[in-house]
Protein backbone atom coordinates (compact mmCIF):
# COMPACT_ATOMS: atom_id res chain seq x y z
CA UNK A 1 0.00 0.00 0.00
CA UNK A 2 2.87 2.34 0.66
CA UNK A 3 3.54 4.55 -2.32
CA UNK A 4 4.84 7.82 -1.04
CA UNK A 5 8.53 8.60 -0.59
CA UNK A 6 9.91 10.85 2.09
CA UNK A 7 12.39 13.66 1.55
CA UNK A 8 15.00 14.46 4.15
CA UNK A 9 16.01 18.04 3.37
CA UNK A 10 13.83 20.86 2.09
CA UNK A 11 16.58 21.76 -0.38
CA UNK A 12 16.23 18.38 -2.11
CA UNK A 13 13.02 19.36 -3.87
CA UNK A 14 11.46 22.40 -5.44
CA UNK A 15 9.48 24.62 -3.09
CA UNK A 16 7.94 28.05 -2.75
CA UNK A 17 7.85 29.91 0.55
CA UNK A 18 4.53 31.45 1.42
CA UNK A 19 2.48 32.96 4.23
CA UNK A 20 -1.12 33.80 4.92
CA UNK A 21 -0.43 37.35 6.08
CA UNK A 22 -3.39 38.35 8.23
CA UNK A 23 -3.59 39.89 11.66
CA UNK A 24 -6.69 40.39 13.75
CA UNK A 25 -8.25 42.72 16.28
CA UNK A 26 -10.44 40.56 18.51
CA UNK A 27 -13.22 42.26 20.45
CA UNK A 28 -13.62 40.98 23.98
CA UNK A 29 -17.40 40.91 23.58
CA UNK A 30 -20.24 42.12 25.75
CA UNK A 31 -19.50 39.87 28.72
CA UNK A 32 -15.79 40.44 28.15
CA UNK A 33 -16.25 44.19 28.62
CA UNK A 34 -17.40 43.47 32.16
CA UNK A 35 -14.86 40.76 32.89
CA UNK A 36 -11.80 42.55 31.56
CA UNK A 37 -12.70 46.02 32.89
CA UNK A 38 -13.18 44.53 36.35
CA UNK A 39 -9.74 42.90 36.15
CA UNK A 40 -8.36 46.47 36.17
CA UNK A 41 -10.11 46.85 39.54
CA UNK A 42 -8.50 43.65 40.78
CA UNK A 43 -11.77 41.71 40.59
CA UNK A 44 -12.87 38.54 38.83
CA UNK A 45 -16.41 38.50 37.52
CA UNK A 46 -18.65 35.59 36.65
CA UNK A 47 -22.27 35.23 35.64
CA UNK A 48 -24.86 33.14 37.41
CA UNK A 49 -27.67 31.15 35.81
CA UNK A 50 -30.19 30.82 38.61
CA UNK A 51 -32.30 28.22 36.79
CA UNK A 52 -29.37 25.85 36.37
CA UNK A 53 -27.59 27.00 39.54
CA UNK A 54 -24.33 27.44 37.66
CA UNK A 55 -21.89 30.31 37.97
CA UNK A 56 -19.72 30.70 34.90
CA UNK A 57 -16.26 32.26 35.04
CA UNK A 58 -15.34 34.31 33.06
CA UNK A 59 -18.72 36.05 32.82
CA UNK A 60 -20.87 35.03 29.87
CA UNK A 61 -23.98 36.60 28.35
CA UNK A 62 -25.84 33.29 28.16
CA UNK A 63 -26.14 29.91 29.86
CA UNK A 64 -25.00 27.20 27.47
CA UNK A 65 -27.28 24.65 29.12
CA UNK A 66 -30.67 26.47 29.08
CA UNK A 67 -29.86 29.49 26.89
CA UNK A 68 -31.00 31.96 29.54
CA UNK A 69 -29.61 35.48 29.08
CA UNK A 70 -27.18 36.31 31.90
CA UNK A 71 -26.26 39.92 31.16
CA UNK A 72 -27.89 41.17 34.35
CA UNK A 73 -26.48 38.28 36.38
CA UNK A 74 -22.86 39.32 36.62
CA UNK A 75 -21.26 38.96 40.01
CA UNK A 76 -17.94 39.38 41.78
CA UNK A 77 -16.69 35.87 42.51
CA UNK A 78 -13.60 36.81 44.50
CA UNK A 79 -10.05 35.96 43.57
CA UNK A 80 -9.56 32.65 45.37
CA UNK A 81 -9.80 29.16 43.93
CA UNK A 82 -8.40 25.65 43.99
CA UNK A 83 -6.03 23.86 41.65
CA UNK A 84 -8.24 21.53 39.61
CA UNK A 85 -5.37 20.08 37.57
CA UNK A 86 -1.94 21.25 36.45
CA UNK A 87 1.15 20.61 34.37
CA UNK A 88 4.67 21.91 33.94
CA UNK A 89 5.56 22.91 30.36
CA UNK A 90 9.00 22.57 28.84
CA UNK A 91 8.36 23.81 25.30
CA UNK A 92 6.79 26.84 23.69
CA UNK A 93 3.96 26.61 21.19
CA UNK A 94 6.60 26.91 18.48
CA UNK A 95 8.28 23.74 19.73
CA UNK A 96 11.24 25.61 21.25
CA UNK A 97 12.68 24.47 24.58
CA UNK A 98 12.01 26.96 27.36
CA UNK A 99 14.88 28.29 29.46
CA UNK A 100 12.76 27.86 32.55
CA UNK A 101 9.69 25.58 32.53
CA UNK A 102 6.41 27.17 33.59
CA UNK A 103 3.65 25.70 35.73
CA UNK A 104 0.18 25.98 34.23
CA UNK A 105 -2.99 25.13 36.11
CA UNK A 106 -6.73 25.03 35.67
CA UNK A 107 -8.12 26.88 38.69
CA UNK A 108 -11.69 26.42 39.84
CA UNK A 109 -12.85 29.71 41.33
CA UNK A 110 -14.35 29.17 44.77
CA UNK A 111 -18.14 29.04 44.93
CA UNK A 112 -18.48 28.67 41.15
CA UNK A 113 -18.52 26.05 38.41
CA UNK A 114 -16.12 28.29 36.49
CA UNK A 115 -12.44 27.82 35.76
CA UNK A 116 -9.52 29.95 34.63
CA UNK A 117 -6.35 28.68 33.03
CA UNK A 118 -3.32 30.49 34.38
CA UNK A 119 0.25 30.21 35.56
CA UNK A 120 1.18 29.30 39.12
CA UNK A 121 3.87 31.33 40.86
CA UNK A 122 5.73 31.53 44.18
CA UNK A 123 5.78 27.72 44.43
CA UNK A 124 8.00 24.85 43.32
CA UNK A 125 6.47 22.31 40.94
CA UNK A 126 7.09 19.45 43.36
CA UNK A 127 4.85 21.14 45.93
CA UNK A 128 1.82 21.64 43.66
CA UNK A 129 -1.15 19.35 44.22
CA UNK A 130 -4.72 19.04 42.98
CA UNK A 131 -7.11 20.73 45.39
CA UNK A 132 -4.51 23.21 46.66
CA UNK A 133 -6.04 26.63 47.56
CA UNK A 134 -4.65 29.51 45.49
CA UNK A 135 -5.31 33.22 44.99
CA UNK A 136 -4.84 35.58 42.06
CA UNK A 137 -1.84 37.92 42.15
CA UNK A 138 -2.53 41.08 40.16
CA UNK A 139 -0.08 43.46 38.54
CA UNK A 140 0.33 46.91 40.09
CA UNK A 141 -2.82 48.91 39.41
CA UNK A 142 -1.09 51.40 37.08
CA UNK A 143 0.10 48.55 34.86
CA UNK A 144 -3.30 46.87 34.39
CA UNK A 145 -4.87 47.23 30.97
CA UNK A 146 -7.93 44.98 30.95
CA UNK A 147 -6.14 41.77 29.90
CA UNK A 148 -6.04 38.28 31.36
CA UNK A 149 -2.38 39.12 31.96
CA UNK A 150 -3.47 41.72 34.56
CA UNK A 151 -3.37 38.61 36.72
CA UNK A 152 0.33 37.79 36.92
CA UNK A 153 -0.30 34.28 38.21
CA UNK A 154 -2.03 32.43 41.04
CA UNK A 155 -0.08 31.69 44.22
CA UNK A 156 -0.73 29.32 47.13
CA UNK A 157 -2.78 30.69 50.03
CA UNK A 158 -0.61 30.35 53.08
CA UNK B 1 -32.85 4.36 5.64
CA UNK B 2 -30.80 2.09 3.43
CA UNK B 3 -27.99 -0.09 4.69
CA UNK B 4 -24.54 1.20 3.67
CA UNK B 5 -21.31 -0.76 3.27
CA UNK B 6 -17.62 -0.04 2.88
CA UNK B 7 -16.47 -1.88 -0.25
CA UNK B 8 -12.95 -0.50 -0.82
CA UNK B 9 -10.14 1.34 0.96
CA UNK B 10 -6.86 3.11 0.26
CA UNK B 11 -4.17 4.56 2.49
CA UNK B 12 -0.89 6.33 1.70
CA UNK B 13 2.16 5.84 3.83
CA UNK B 14 2.28 8.32 6.71
CA UNK B 15 5.42 10.49 6.87
CA UNK B 16 6.73 13.75 8.17
CA UNK B 17 7.61 15.68 4.99
CA UNK B 18 6.10 14.12 1.91
CA UNK B 19 7.03 15.60 -1.41
CA UNK B 20 3.44 15.23 -2.63
CA UNK B 21 1.12 18.20 -2.40
CA UNK B 22 -2.03 17.75 -0.31
CA UNK B 23 -4.13 17.08 -3.40
CA UNK B 24 -1.56 14.58 -4.69
CA UNK B 25 -1.79 12.73 -1.39
CA UNK B 26 -5.60 12.73 -1.67
CA UNK B 27 -5.31 11.40 -5.21
CA UNK B 28 -3.03 8.49 -4.20
CA UNK B 29 -5.38 7.32 -1.46
CA UNK B 30 -8.50 7.75 -3.60
CA UNK B 31 -7.00 5.95 -6.57
CA UNK B 32 -5.88 3.09 -4.34
CA UNK B 33 -9.38 2.77 -2.85
CA UNK B 34 -11.04 2.66 -6.28
CA UNK B 35 -8.51 0.10 -7.53
CA UNK B 36 -9.05 -2.06 -4.43
CA UNK B 37 -12.66 -2.70 -5.47
CA UNK B 38 -12.13 -2.44 -9.24
CA UNK B 39 -14.26 0.68 -9.57
CA UNK B 40 -13.76 3.70 -11.80
CA UNK B 41 -14.38 7.33 -10.99
CA UNK B 42 -17.37 7.21 -13.33
CA UNK B 43 -18.96 4.64 -10.97
CA UNK B 44 -18.98 7.22 -8.17
CA UNK B 45 -22.06 9.37 -7.51
CA UNK B 46 -20.73 11.82 -4.92
CA UNK B 47 -17.71 12.71 -2.79
CA UNK B 48 -17.23 13.86 0.79
CA UNK B 49 -13.95 15.12 2.18
CA UNK B 50 -12.71 15.41 5.76
CA UNK B 51 -9.73 17.58 6.53
CA UNK B 52 -8.74 19.47 9.69
CA UNK B 53 -7.61 23.11 10.05
CA UNK B 54 -6.72 25.00 6.87
CA UNK B 55 -3.72 26.26 8.82
CA UNK B 56 -1.90 22.91 8.57
CA UNK B 57 -1.68 22.68 4.81
CA UNK B 58 -1.60 26.49 4.69
CA UNK B 59 -4.32 26.58 2.05
CA UNK B 60 -7.33 28.66 2.90
CA UNK B 61 -10.58 26.87 1.90
CA UNK B 62 -8.72 23.59 1.70
CA UNK B 63 -11.92 21.71 0.85
CA UNK B 64 -12.14 23.23 -2.61
CA UNK B 65 -8.42 22.89 -3.14
CA UNK B 66 -8.54 19.16 -2.37
CA UNK B 67 -11.65 18.42 -4.42
CA UNK B 68 -10.04 17.29 -7.67
CA UNK B 69 -7.52 15.04 -5.94
CA UNK B 70 -10.47 13.49 -4.13
CA UNK B 71 -12.26 12.65 -7.38
CA UNK B 72 -14.94 15.34 -7.09
CA UNK B 73 -14.69 16.94 -10.53
CA UNK B 74 -18.27 17.74 -11.61
CA UNK B 75 -19.73 15.70 -8.78
CA UNK B 76 -21.70 16.65 -5.68
CA UNK B 77 -18.98 17.43 -3.12
CA UNK B 78 -19.00 18.47 0.50
CA UNK B 79 -16.29 19.07 3.07
CA UNK B 80 -16.75 18.44 6.78
CA UNK B 81 -14.51 19.38 9.69
CA UNK B 82 -14.63 18.71 13.42
CA UNK B 83 -10.93 19.04 14.23
CA UNK B 84 -9.31 15.79 15.36
CA UNK B 85 -12.71 14.08 15.32
CA UNK B 86 -12.95 14.59 11.56
CA UNK B 87 -11.62 11.23 10.35
CA UNK B 88 -14.37 9.22 12.02
CA UNK B 89 -17.05 11.77 11.09
CA UNK B 90 -15.98 11.22 7.46
CA UNK B 91 -17.65 7.80 6.98
CA UNK B 92 -20.70 9.11 8.88
CA UNK B 93 -20.96 12.02 6.47
CA UNK B 94 -20.69 9.61 3.54
CA UNK B 95 -23.27 7.36 5.20
CA UNK B 96 -25.83 10.23 5.18
CA UNK B 97 -25.41 10.58 1.44
CA UNK B 98 -26.05 6.90 0.70
CA UNK B 99 -28.44 5.92 3.51
CA UNK B 100 -30.75 8.76 2.49
CA UNK B 101 -31.27 7.16 -0.91
CA UNK B 102 -29.91 10.20 -2.70
CA UNK B 103 -26.76 8.42 -3.98
CA UNK B 104 -25.73 4.78 -4.49
CA UNK B 105 -21.97 5.28 -4.18
CA UNK B 106 -19.80 7.76 -2.32
CA UNK B 107 -16.07 8.37 -1.99
CA UNK B 108 -15.01 9.33 1.52
CA UNK B 109 -11.58 10.98 1.50
CA UNK B 110 -9.49 12.39 4.36
CA UNK B 111 -6.21 14.25 4.02
CA UNK B 112 -3.73 16.18 6.13
CA UNK B 113 -0.31 17.60 5.37
CA UNK B 114 1.04 19.00 8.61
CA UNK B 115 4.64 19.45 7.53
CA UNK B 116 3.91 22.57 5.47
CA UNK B 117 3.47 24.64 8.64
CA UNK B 118 6.65 26.24 9.95
CA UNK B 119 8.34 26.28 12.34
CA UNK B 120 6.00 23.64 13.77
CA UNK B 121 2.33 22.81 13.09
CA UNK B 122 1.68 23.07 16.84
CA UNK B 123 1.78 26.84 16.25
CA UNK B 124 -1.50 26.55 14.32
CA UNK B 125 -3.22 25.41 17.50
CA UNK B 126 -2.51 28.62 19.40
CA UNK B 127 -5.42 30.30 17.65
CA UNK B 128 -7.96 27.60 18.51
CA UNK B 129 -7.96 28.79 22.11
CA UNK B 130 -10.11 31.66 23.34
CA UNK B 131 -8.47 34.76 21.98
CA UNK B 132 -8.79 36.90 25.08
CA UNK B 133 -8.83 34.56 28.08
CA UNK B 134 -6.36 31.89 26.96
CA UNK B 135 -4.20 32.92 23.99
CA UNK B 136 -2.24 35.52 25.96
CA UNK B 137 -0.96 32.60 28.12
CA UNK B 138 0.46 30.85 25.03
CA UNK B 139 -1.26 27.51 25.56
CA UNK B 140 -0.02 24.49 23.65
CA UNK B 141 -1.96 21.35 22.84
CA UNK B 142 0.53 19.32 24.79
CA UNK B 143 -0.01 21.26 27.96
CA UNK B 144 -3.78 21.08 27.89
CA UNK B 145 -3.55 17.33 27.36
CA UNK B 146 -1.01 17.06 30.18
CA UNK B 147 -3.58 18.81 32.35
CA UNK B 148 -6.23 16.26 31.33
CA UNK B 149 -3.87 13.30 31.82
CA UNK B 150 -3.00 14.50 35.32
CA UNK B 151 -6.70 14.69 36.23
CA UNK B 152 -7.32 11.20 34.76
CA UNK B 153 -4.35 9.68 36.62
CA UNK B 154 -5.08 11.38 39.91
CA UNK B 155 -8.80 10.52 39.91
CA UNK B 156 -8.19 6.81 39.33
CA UNK B 157 -4.78 6.45 40.97
CA UNK B 158 -3.24 5.33 37.66
CA UNK B 159 0.54 5.12 37.36
CA UNK B 160 2.45 6.78 34.54
CA UNK B 161 4.56 3.66 33.96
CA UNK B 162 1.41 1.58 33.38
CA UNK B 163 -0.10 4.10 30.96
CA UNK B 164 3.20 3.99 29.03
CA UNK B 165 2.33 0.39 28.05
CA UNK B 166 -0.06 1.85 25.46
CA UNK B 167 2.93 3.25 23.53
CA UNK B 168 4.75 -0.08 23.82
CA UNK B 169 1.73 -2.00 22.51
CA UNK B 170 0.75 0.35 19.71
CA UNK B 171 4.21 0.99 18.31
CA UNK B 172 4.79 -2.77 18.28
CA UNK B 173 1.48 -3.39 16.48
CA UNK B 174 2.56 -0.80 13.90
CA UNK B 175 5.61 -2.94 13.00
CA UNK B 176 3.21 -4.89 10.76
CA UNK B 177 1.58 -1.85 9.13
CA UNK B 178 2.98 -0.83 5.71
CA UNK B 179 1.88 2.79 6.20
CA UNK B 180 3.47 3.21 9.62
CA UNK B 181 5.62 6.22 10.42
CA UNK B 182 6.87 5.27 13.90
CA UNK B 183 6.79 1.49 14.32
CA UNK B 184 9.18 0.38 17.05
CA UNK B 185 9.88 -2.17 19.71
CA UNK B 186 10.29 -0.10 22.85
CA UNK B 187 10.02 -0.61 26.58
CA UNK B 188 8.20 1.26 29.32
CA UNK B 189 11.58 2.56 30.44
CA UNK B 190 12.16 4.06 26.97
CA UNK B 191 8.90 6.01 27.32
CA UNK B 192 9.75 7.22 30.82
CA UNK B 193 13.27 8.18 29.75
CA UNK B 194 12.16 10.10 26.67
CA UNK B 195 12.20 13.89 26.78
CA UNK B 196 9.67 15.44 29.15
CA UNK B 197 7.29 17.71 27.18
CA UNK B 198 4.75 18.83 29.79
CA UNK B 199 4.56 16.74 32.93
CA UNK B 200 3.25 13.96 32.93
CA UNK B 201 3.61 13.74 29.13
CA UNK B 202 6.91 12.55 27.65
CA UNK B 203 7.81 12.52 23.97
CA UNK B 204 6.97 8.84 23.49
CA UNK B 205 3.52 9.39 25.01
CA UNK B 206 2.66 11.48 21.93
CA UNK B 207 1.82 10.62 18.32
CA UNK B 208 3.91 12.37 15.65
CA UNK B 209 2.88 15.10 13.23
CA UNK B 210 2.38 13.52 9.83
CA UNK B 211 1.38 13.88 6.20
CA UNK B 212 -1.00 11.38 4.65
CA UNK B 213 -4.35 10.57 3.13
CA UNK B 214 -6.99 7.84 3.37
CA UNK B 215 -10.11 6.90 1.43
CA UNK B 216 -13.00 4.45 1.62
CA UNK B 217 -15.63 3.67 -1.00
CA UNK B 218 -19.22 3.43 0.25
CA UNK B 219 -22.08 1.71 -1.55
CA UNK B 220 -25.77 1.09 -0.94
CA UNK B 221 -26.64 -2.55 -0.20
CA UNK B 222 -27.80 -3.55 -3.68
CA UNK B 223 -24.65 -2.10 -5.26
CA UNK B 224 -22.31 -3.39 -2.54
CA UNK B 225 -23.43 -6.97 -3.08
CA UNK B 226 -22.48 -6.70 -6.77
CA UNK B 227 -19.03 -5.30 -5.93
CA UNK B 228 -17.89 -7.71 -3.24
CA UNK B 229 -18.80 -10.97 -1.56
CA UNK B 230 -17.99 -9.45 1.82
CA UNK B 231 -19.27 -5.91 2.29
CA UNK B 232 -18.48 -4.41 5.69
CA UNK B 233 -21.54 -2.60 7.01
CA UNK B 234 -21.71 0.76 8.75
CA UNK B 235 -24.21 -0.30 11.40
CA UNK B 236 -23.78 2.46 13.95
CA UNK B 237 -22.99 6.20 13.81
CA UNK B 238 -22.71 8.59 16.72
CA UNK B 239 -21.36 12.06 17.33
CA UNK B 240 -21.68 14.64 20.05
CA UNK B 241 -20.19 17.82 21.39
CA UNK B 242 -19.57 18.62 25.04
CA UNK B 243 -19.24 22.15 26.37
CA UNK B 244 -17.22 24.56 24.23
CA UNK B 245 -15.41 25.71 27.39
CA UNK B 246 -12.90 22.91 27.70
CA UNK B 247 -11.94 23.76 31.24
CA UNK B 248 -15.48 23.33 32.52
CA UNK B 249 -16.01 19.68 31.75
CA UNK B 250 -14.84 16.96 34.09
CA UNK B 251 -11.56 16.10 32.42
CA UNK B 252 -11.19 12.67 34.02
CA UNK B 253 -13.98 11.14 31.90
CA UNK B 254 -14.88 11.73 28.22
CA UNK B 255 -18.63 12.38 28.40
CA UNK B 256 -18.47 13.66 24.81
CA UNK B 257 -17.59 10.11 23.80
CA UNK B 258 -20.11 8.25 25.94
CA UNK B 259 -22.97 10.27 24.43
CA UNK B 260 -21.74 9.53 20.90
CA UNK B 261 -21.10 5.86 21.67
CA UNK B 262 -24.56 5.35 23.15
CA UNK B 263 -26.06 6.80 19.96
CA UNK B 264 -23.99 4.48 17.75
CA UNK B 265 -24.65 1.41 19.93
CA UNK B 266 -28.39 2.09 19.92
CA UNK B 267 -28.42 2.32 16.15
CA UNK B 268 -26.40 -0.92 15.89
CA UNK B 269 -28.56 -2.71 18.50
CA UNK B 270 -25.61 -3.20 20.85
CA UNK B 271 -26.62 -3.60 24.48
CA UNK B 272 -23.41 -4.84 26.10
CA UNK B 273 -20.52 -3.22 24.23
CA UNK B 274 -17.75 -5.01 26.13
CA UNK B 275 -19.20 -8.39 25.08
CA UNK B 276 -20.61 -7.66 21.63
CA UNK B 277 -17.63 -5.71 20.26
CA UNK B 278 -14.63 -7.81 19.26
CA UNK B 279 -12.06 -5.19 18.22
CA UNK B 280 -11.68 -1.48 18.83
CA UNK B 281 -9.70 1.39 17.40
CA UNK B 282 -9.92 3.99 20.18
CA UNK B 283 -8.41 7.36 19.30
CA UNK B 284 -4.87 7.43 20.71
CA UNK B 285 -3.03 10.70 19.94
CA UNK B 286 -1.59 10.34 23.46
CA UNK B 287 -1.05 7.16 25.49
CA UNK B 288 -3.59 8.02 28.18
CA UNK B 289 -6.20 8.93 25.53
CA UNK B 290 -6.53 5.31 24.37
CA UNK B 291 -7.47 4.32 27.93
CA UNK B 292 -9.65 7.39 28.44
CA UNK B 293 -11.52 6.44 25.28
CA UNK B 294 -11.75 2.72 26.12
CA UNK B 295 -13.61 3.83 29.26
CA UNK B 296 -15.75 6.34 27.34
CA UNK B 297 -16.66 3.64 24.80
CA UNK B 298 -17.78 1.56 27.80
CA UNK B 299 -15.41 -1.26 26.84
CA UNK B 300 -13.92 -1.12 30.36
CA UNK B 301 -15.44 0.06 33.64
CA UNK B 302 -14.29 3.49 34.76
CA UNK B 303 -11.02 3.22 36.62
CA UNK B 304 -10.30 -0.33 35.39
CA UNK B 305 -8.80 0.14 31.94
CA UNK B 306 -5.20 0.28 33.14
CA UNK B 307 -5.41 -3.03 34.98
CA UNK B 308 -6.95 -4.63 31.89
CA UNK B 309 -4.12 -3.18 29.79
CA UNK B 310 -1.50 -4.55 32.18
CA UNK B 311 -3.24 -7.96 32.04
CA UNK B 312 -2.91 -8.05 28.24
CA UNK B 313 -6.66 -7.72 27.57
CA UNK B 314 -6.04 -5.18 24.78
CA UNK B 315 -3.17 -6.94 23.01
CA UNK B 316 -3.65 -8.16 19.46
CA UNK B 317 -4.27 -11.68 20.81
CA UNK B 318 -6.15 -10.47 23.90
CA UNK B 319 -9.89 -10.61 24.60
CA UNK B 320 -10.50 -7.19 23.08
CA UNK B 321 -7.66 -6.06 20.80
CA UNK B 322 -7.40 -2.26 20.73
CA UNK B 323 -5.51 -0.33 18.05
CA UNK B 324 -4.39 -3.51 16.24
CA UNK B 325 -3.33 -1.13 13.43
CA UNK B 326 -0.69 0.46 15.65
CA UNK B 327 -2.85 3.51 16.20
CA UNK B 328 -1.81 7.11 15.91
CA UNK B 329 1.14 6.41 18.22
CA UNK B 330 2.58 3.86 15.80
CA UNK B 331 1.12 4.49 12.35
CA UNK B 332 1.14 8.28 12.63
CA UNK B 333 -1.26 11.17 12.98
CA UNK B 334 -2.15 13.13 9.84
CA UNK B 335 -5.25 14.29 11.70
CA UNK B 336 -8.30 13.51 9.53
CA UNK B 337 -6.50 10.73 7.63
CA UNK B 338 -5.49 9.11 10.94
CA UNK B 339 -9.13 8.83 12.05
CA UNK B 340 -10.12 7.27 8.75
CA UNK B 341 -7.08 4.96 8.98
CA UNK B 342 -8.69 3.53 12.12
CA UNK B 343 -11.95 2.86 10.28
CA UNK B 344 -9.97 1.24 7.45
CA UNK B 345 -8.27 -1.03 10.01
CA UNK B 346 -11.67 -2.25 11.22
CA UNK B 347 -12.70 -2.78 7.59
CA UNK B 348 -9.63 -4.92 6.86
CA UNK B 349 -9.89 -6.85 10.13
CA UNK B 350 -13.60 -7.65 9.71
CA UNK B 351 -13.00 -8.65 6.12
CA UNK B 352 -10.19 -10.94 7.30
CA UNK B 353 -7.62 -9.27 5.05
CA UNK B 354 -5.43 -7.50 7.62
CA UNK B 355 -2.47 -9.78 6.83
CA UNK B 356 0.14 -9.93 9.57
CA UNK B 357 -2.03 -7.66 11.71
CA UNK B 358 -5.07 -9.95 11.56
CA UNK B 359 -6.49 -10.55 15.04
CA UNK B 360 -7.48 -14.15 15.81
CA UNK B 361 -11.07 -15.37 16.25
CA UNK B 362 -12.82 -14.03 13.13
CA UNK B 363 -14.10 -10.77 14.60
CA UNK B 364 -17.45 -9.63 13.26
CA UNK B 365 -18.03 -6.34 15.09
CA UNK B 366 -15.69 -3.39 15.65
CA UNK B 367 -15.84 0.19 16.90
CA UNK B 368 -13.64 3.21 16.13
CA UNK B 369 -13.70 6.67 17.63
CA UNK B 370 -12.00 9.99 17.16
CA UNK B 371 -11.88 13.13 19.27
CA UNK B 372 -11.25 16.72 18.51
CA UNK B 373 -12.39 20.28 18.15
CA UNK B 374 -11.30 21.94 21.38
CA UNK B 375 -11.12 18.61 23.24
CA UNK B 376 -14.88 18.10 23.29
CA UNK B 377 -16.19 16.39 20.14
CA UNK B 378 -16.71 12.63 19.98
CA UNK B 379 -17.29 10.67 16.76
CA UNK B 380 -18.02 6.93 16.73
CA UNK B 381 -18.58 4.31 14.03
CA UNK B 382 -19.61 0.67 14.50
CA UNK B 383 -18.81 -1.73 11.65
CA UNK B 384 -20.00 -5.32 11.16
CA UNK B 385 -19.15 -8.00 8.66
User: Which whole number gives the mean pLDDT of chain B?
Assistant: 95
Regarding CATH, which class of chain B? Answer: Alpha Beta
How many helices of chain A? The count is: 1
User: What is the share of helical residues of chain A?
Assistant: under 10%
Characterize the biggest β-sheet of chain A: 5 strands, antiparallel
Shape of chain A: globular
* Overall geometry of chain B: globular
| Low-confidence regions of chain B | none
Question: What count of helical segments of chain B does DSSP give?
Answer: 15
**Unreliable residue runs of chain A:** none
Mind telling me the C-alpha Rg of chain B? Answer: 19 Å
Number of strands of chain B: 11
H/E series of chain A:
HEEEEEEEE
Cα radius of gyration of chain A in angstroms:
21 Å
Compute the separation of the termini of chain B in Å.
Answer: 19 Å
Largest interface: A-B, 49 and 55 residues
Report the CATH superfamily of chain B. Answer: Thiolase/Chalcone synthase
Under CATH, the topology of chain B can be stated as Peroxisomal Thiolase, Chain A, domain 1
Summarize the structure.
The complex is a heterodimer of chains A (158) and B (385). With 158 residues, chain A is mainly β.
Summarize the helices and strands and which ones pair or pack.
The complex is a heterodimer of chains A (about 160) and B (about 375).
Chain A: H1 29-40, E1 45-49, E2 54-56, E3 74-76, E4 80-91, E5 97-109, E6 115-119, E7 133-138, E8 151-156
Antiparallel strand pairs in A: 1-2, 1-3, 4-5, 4-7, 5-6, 7-8
Chain B: E1 4-11, H1 22-36, E2 46-50, H2 54-57, H3 62-66, E3 77-80, H4 86-99, E4 105-113, H5 141-156, H6 160-163, H7 165-173, H8 188-193, E5 196-199, E6 201-202, E7 211-220, H9 221-227, E8 232-241, H10 255-268, H11 273-276, E9 279-281, H12 287-296, H13 305-310, H14 327-330, H15 335-351, E10 365-372, E11 377-384
Parallel strand pairs in B: 2-3, 2-4, 9-10
Antiparallel strand pairs in B: 1-7, 1-8, 4-7, 5-6, 8-11, 10-11
Helix pairs in contact in B: 4-15
Amino acid sequence: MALIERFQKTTDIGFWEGQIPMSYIYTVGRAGEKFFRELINGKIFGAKCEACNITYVPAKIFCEKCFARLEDKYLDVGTNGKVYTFTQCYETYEGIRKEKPSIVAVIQIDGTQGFLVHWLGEIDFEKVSIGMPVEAVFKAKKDREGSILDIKYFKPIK
Amino acid sequence: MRRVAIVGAGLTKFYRNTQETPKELAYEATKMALDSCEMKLSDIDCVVHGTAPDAFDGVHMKGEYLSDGSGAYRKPYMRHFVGGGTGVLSPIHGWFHVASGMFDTCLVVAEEKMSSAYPHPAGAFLTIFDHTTEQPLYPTLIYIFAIEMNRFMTTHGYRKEDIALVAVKNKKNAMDHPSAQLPAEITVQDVLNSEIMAWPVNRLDISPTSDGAACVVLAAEHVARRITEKPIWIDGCGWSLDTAYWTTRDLYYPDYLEVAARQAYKMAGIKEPSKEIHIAEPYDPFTYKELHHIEGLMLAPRGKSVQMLVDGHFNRNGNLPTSPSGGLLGVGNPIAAAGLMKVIELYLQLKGTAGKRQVPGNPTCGVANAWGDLMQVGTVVVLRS
